[in-house]
């Protein structure tokens, strides 16, 4: 255990005694402050109570700390004196602020000491401090007294305390920048008076920052700038610099443009030739006083030539041209006249701008121009002059040009331009035309042309008429018209000069007439003579009465007459008919020598050629006569005329014809006489109508035929005694009987008696007489008489036994003349006449009731072969016998087995059988019969006979020696076959 106890030694010192029995050396250093002297002692442990004084370590003295404006403090001191020389020193720094503790200074410590008596304490933050220096020897230390206070101002960087903002170009920022001087800890170095300089970051060309003072010394570490501004609009950043300090950068500040004050050419126009757009077009900018583009401006900018006068500036863009975003970009600007120019741009109250000088030269040949215009008025055919110049695009004369220039009328119409020479070569760029004249009145412009050049159009020239010399139809009458109707287009006759221009001052009287009237009349309303008004006579209501082709003549004393176009006058609406060809006299039934023609006329008697009206001819007073024509009647007019053909009247007499057509006024022909002609034909006077008679019965008195000898018109030739013969026209087979027949006419008429026809039917009678046309009567219907007999109207045909006749018998009930009595339903019985033994059967009834006088039997047949006739009978009627019918043997129809005996048979035991073959009528059929096993018994059994095929003898085929080799489980079915017919028979074999 160690214990310390202080001992008083000498005044001003303190001694520590060590009382310990330990064996460990212990160094104890005490630093005791007693009247400013620090003593150090070296003690060693030992046994018992003892002490030793080794010496005293003196502290350094005269510690000097001068003031500084940087973060480095320079320390110096006087080395410790005494027997003990320190091995080194270390320094400490203590802030004067309350509660501060000492910290190492100059990078020293108890274990890292200095051997020098000065050091620099760097990186000291701004503040007020005191220092001490401690001498070190082994484990002993001695510390100096505290230094005087030293204040450190440690400026390291700048910073914007107040950012610039709210700037318009050339105007002081609304918020002026403040720059603070700071130490490394970001504290304001209030002691700093560093000079601070403001600038624009990047130093943009043409942009200037100005302030009331710049550079500006800091006051209490802050440089407060004023009046700072930037002249150009834009977004900028400011930098603050001061030698030795880290610079500061402001936030960005946007400098806006100011109010518009002026214009400026930001793109200058370049030189060109007359009338050709500048290759570089001018661009004008609206600016504020600092030259910034006022991008919100849409003010209209006007471009003018500054000097000289006489030239014209034009642009394809608008002029004035509203600015877009403060810029007016002109397009297509050009100056017409050669010269040197400047342009002036102006806009309201803004200061105008003047461009750089530009030269306009004479360009290449481009266009023509009328430099001397034609006169404003000239007479038709009167000479005038005009001048055309060859120019560049700007209108400058190309004095070296000899281009050929031609003049034409811009809108010539019917007019013609003539000049002394046209085209004309330019001389020194100018073509002077003389002797030019235009023939037609009107207002014109001239066009000047030259190959490859833009044409020129003159001012207007009005051409007035010359002296009256002639007339002309300026409005023609209609090319077509209707008789008696005003022309749709009424004629106008005009007084003209030699060139065809209307002489508007003329009031000459003009007369209108038909050039070649040919019986027609021209009328106008009110008259055909009319005074011209302003050189024109306009006629009204003019019309021509007759159809035809015409021209009109307009005449006036002293003037050449005019002839109109051709006028075709057509007929008007159909109004009436007229016989344009009268019918001539003839004989009955003979066509008129002259056939009638009827024409459709209008009210003026003109043929209406378009009419196809149907015209009907009739006898005005027919009195039993008939008018016939070979042409149609009614007959449609062709081109307004109905020309009839083959017209004739049958009866002799005196007649007129009437022509009619709808609502048209009818026409009556002149009188014509029809005479009796020569004998030509026969005509039945009686019977007058169709009639009926009974066969072989004399016609009734009123129906006995009477035939007249007639001319072609049907007029009786009363002097004729011609012999007339009657015959039946149809049908054949009947007979006409009269008493007598033929018969001579008496006074032209043959009257027959006792005439009758034997056969039923419908007939006409024909009357004949040499050289005369036959006559045909009305129809005669002959009906049957009383039933008296039967007749086979269809004979039965040959057949085979028991087979129906292919042709079945038909029996008719007839009168005495053989006419079928169609009203009869009498029953008819059919039977075999001869021979006996055979049987006749029919599928139809027998007797069979007649239908309409006819009994048509069906499926009648005879069973036995032979030759037969049939007899038909019915009550009291005379019977009828048919022609002979032959019945032959037919094909096999039935096969019949005779029973074999004895039966049954043993296998392979002989037996006999026979087969009878007959046709459908039971007649024996000569043929061969085949025998075989059809079925049953044993399928493998075999039938044998002396012959399995046997001929019939008297209809029987015999089979002998027949046997079956195997017994049958069931009876065998034997089959006999002949001519496709078979029959079977059962036989048992055991």
Question: What is the element layout, followed by pairings?
Answer:
Blueprint: E1 3-8, E2 14-19, E3 49-50, E4 61-64, E5 73-78, E6 88-95, E7 103-105, E8 118-121, E9 127-137, E10 140-143, E11 150-152, E12 155-162, E13 167-168, E14 178-183, E15 195-200, E16 209-210, E17 216-217, E18 222-224, E19 229-230, E20 234-236, E21 238-241, E22 248-249, E23 253-256, E24 262-267, E25 272-273, E26 283-287, E27 300-307, E28 313-314, E29 321-322, E30 327-329, E31 334-335, E32 339-347, E33 350-354, E34 358-361, E35 367-372, E36 377-379, E37 384-391, E38 404-409, E39 417-418, E40 424-425, E41 430-438, E42 442-444, E43 446-449, E44 456-457, E45 461-464, E46 470-475, E47 480-482, E48 492-496, E49 509-514, E50 522-523, E51 529-531, E52 536-538, E53 543-544, E54 548-550, E55 552-556, E56 559-563, E57 567-570, E58 576-581, E59 586-587, E60 597-601, E61 614-619, E62 627-628, E63 635-636, E64 641-643, E65 648-649, E66 653-655, E67 657-660, E68 667-668, E69 672-675, E70 681-686, E71 691-694, E72 706-710, E73 723-730, E74 736-737, E75 743-744, E76 749-751, E77 756-757, E78 761-768, E79 775-783, E80 789-794, ...
Parallel strand pairs: 13-23, 25-34, 36-45, 47-57, 59-69, 71-79, 81-90
Antiparallel strand pairs: 1-2, 2-3, 4-5, 5-8, 6-7, 6-9, 9-10, 9-11, 12-14, 14-18, 15-17, 15-21, 16-19, 20-23, 21-22, 24-26, 26-30, 27-29, 27-32, 28-31, 32-33, 32-34, 35-37, 37-41, 38-40, 38-43, 39-41, 42-45, 43-44, 46-48, 48-52, 49-51, 49-55, 50-53, 54-57, 55-56, 58-60, 60-64, 61-63, 61-67, ...
């Amino acid at each position: 255990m160690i214990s310390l106890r202080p001992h008083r030694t000498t005044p001003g010192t303190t001694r520590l005694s060590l009382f310990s029995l330990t064996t460990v050396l212990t160094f104890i250093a005490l630093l005791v402050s007693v009247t400013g002297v620090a003593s150090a002692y070296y003690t060693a442990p030992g046994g018992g109570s003892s002490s030793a004084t080794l010496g005293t370590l003196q502290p350094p003295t005269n510690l000097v700390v001068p003031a500084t404006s940087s973060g480095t403090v320079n320390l110096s001191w006087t080395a410790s004196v005494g027997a003990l020389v320190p091995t080194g020193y270390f320094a400490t720094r203590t802030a004067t602020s309350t509660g501060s503790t000492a910290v190492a200074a100059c990078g020293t410590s108890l274990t890292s000491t200095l051997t020098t008596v000065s050091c620099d304490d760097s990186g000291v933050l701004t503040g007020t401090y005191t220092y001490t220096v401690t001498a070190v020897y082994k484990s002993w230390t001695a510390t100096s007294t505290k230094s005087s206070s030293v204040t450190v101002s440690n400026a390291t960087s700048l910073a914007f305390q107040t950012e610039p903002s709210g700037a318009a170009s050339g105007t002081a920022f609304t918020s002026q920048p403040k720059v603070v001087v700071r130490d490394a800890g970001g504290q304001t170095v209030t002691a700093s008076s560093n000079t601070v300089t403001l600038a624009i970051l990047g130093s943009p060309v043409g942009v200037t920052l100005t302030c009331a003072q710049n550079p500006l010394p800091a006051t209490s570490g802050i440089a407060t700038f004023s009046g700072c501004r930037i002249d150009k609009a834009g977004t900028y950043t400011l930098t603050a610099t001061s030698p030795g300090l880290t610079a500061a950068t402001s936030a960005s500040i946007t400098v806006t443009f100011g109010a518009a004050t002026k214009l400026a050419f930001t793109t200058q126009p370049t030189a060109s030739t007359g009338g050709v757009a500048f290759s570089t077009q001018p661009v004008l900018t609206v600016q504020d006083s600092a030259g910034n583009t006022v991008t919100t401006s849409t003010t209209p900018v006007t471009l003018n030539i500054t000097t000289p006068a006489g030239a014209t500036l034009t642009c394809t863009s608008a002029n004035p041209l509203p600015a877009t975003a403060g810029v007016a970009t002109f397009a297509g600007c050009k100056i017409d006249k050669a010269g040197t120019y400047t342009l002036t741009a102006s806009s309201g109250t803004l200061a105008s701008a003047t461009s750089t000088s530009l030269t306009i030269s004479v360009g290449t040949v481009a266009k023509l121009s009328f430099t001397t215009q034609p006169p404003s008025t000239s007479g038709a055919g009167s000479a005038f002059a005009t001048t055309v110049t060859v120019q560049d695009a700007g209108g400058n004369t190309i004095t070296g040009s000899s281009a050929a220039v031609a003049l034409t009328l811009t809108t010539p119409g019917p007019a013609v331009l003539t000049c002394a020479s046209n085209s004309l070569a330019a001389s020194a760029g100018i073509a002077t035309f003389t002797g030019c004249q235009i023939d037609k009145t009107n207002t014109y412009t001239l066009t000047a042309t030259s190959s490859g050049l833009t044409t020129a159009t003159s001012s207007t020239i009005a051409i007035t008429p010359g002296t009256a010399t002639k007339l002309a139809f300026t409005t023609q009458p209609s090319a077509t018209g209707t008789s008696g109707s005003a022309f749709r287009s009424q004629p106008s006759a005009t007084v003209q000069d030699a060139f065809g221009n209307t002489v508007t001052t003329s009031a000459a009287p003009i007369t209108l007439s038909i050039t070649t009237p040919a019986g027609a009349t021209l009328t106008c309303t009110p008259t055909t003579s009319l005074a011209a008004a302003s050189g024109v006579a306009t006629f009204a209501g003019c019309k021509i009465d007759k159809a035809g082709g015409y021209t009109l003549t307009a005449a006036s004393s002293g003037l050449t007459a005019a002839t109109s176009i051709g006028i075709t006058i057509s007929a008007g609406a159909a109004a009436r008919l007229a016989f344009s060809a009268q019918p001539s006299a003839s004989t009955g039934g003979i066509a008129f020598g002259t056939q009638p023609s009827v024409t459709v006329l209008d009210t003026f008697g003109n043929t209406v050629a378009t009419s196809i009206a149907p015209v009907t001819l009739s006898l005005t007073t027919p009195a039993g006569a008939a008018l016939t024509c070979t042409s149609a009647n009614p007959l449609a007019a062709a081109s307004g005329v109905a020309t009839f053909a083959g017209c004739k009247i049958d009866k002799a007499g005196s007649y007129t014809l009437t022509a009619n057509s709808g609502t048209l006024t009818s026409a009556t022909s002149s009188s014509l006489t029809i005479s009796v002609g020569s004998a030509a034909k026969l005509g039945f006077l009686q019977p007058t109508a169709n009639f009926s008679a009974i066969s072989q019965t004399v016609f009734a008195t009123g129906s006995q035929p009477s035939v007249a000898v007639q001319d072609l018109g049907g007029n009786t030739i009363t002097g004729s005694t011609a012999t007339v013969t009657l015959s039946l026209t149809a049908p054949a087979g009947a007979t006409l009987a009269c008493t007598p027949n033929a018969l001579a006419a008496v006074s032209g008429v043959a009257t027959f008696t006792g005439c009758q026809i034997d056969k039923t039917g419908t007939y006409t009678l024909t009357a004949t007489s040499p050289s005369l046309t036959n006559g045909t009567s009305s129809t005669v219907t002959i009906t049957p008489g009383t039933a008296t007999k039967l007749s086979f109207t269809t004979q039965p045909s040959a057949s085979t036994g028991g087979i129906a006749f292919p042709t079945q018998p038909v029996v008719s009930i007839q009168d005495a003349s053989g006419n079928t009595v169609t009203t009869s339903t009498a029953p008819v019985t059919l039977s075999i006449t001869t021979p006996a033994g055979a049987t006749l059967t029919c599928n139809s009834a027998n007797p069979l009731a007649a239908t309409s006088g006819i009994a048509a039997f069906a499926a009648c047949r005879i069973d036995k072969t032979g030759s037969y006739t049939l007899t038909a009978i019915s009550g009291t009627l005379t019977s009828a016998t048919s022609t002979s019918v032959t019945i032959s043997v037919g094909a096999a129809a039935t096969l019949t087995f005779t029973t074999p005996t004895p039966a049954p048979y043993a296998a392979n035991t002989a037996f006999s059988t026979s087969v009878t073959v007959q046709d459908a009528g039971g007649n024996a059929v000569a043929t061969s019969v085949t025998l075989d096993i059809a079925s049953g018994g044993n399928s493998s059994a075999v039938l044998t006979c002396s012959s399995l095929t046997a001929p019939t003898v008297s209809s029987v085929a015999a089979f002998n020696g027949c046997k079956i080799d195997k017994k049958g489980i069931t009876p065998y079915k034997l089959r006999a076959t002949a001519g496709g017919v078979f029959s079977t028979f059962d036989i048992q074999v055991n």
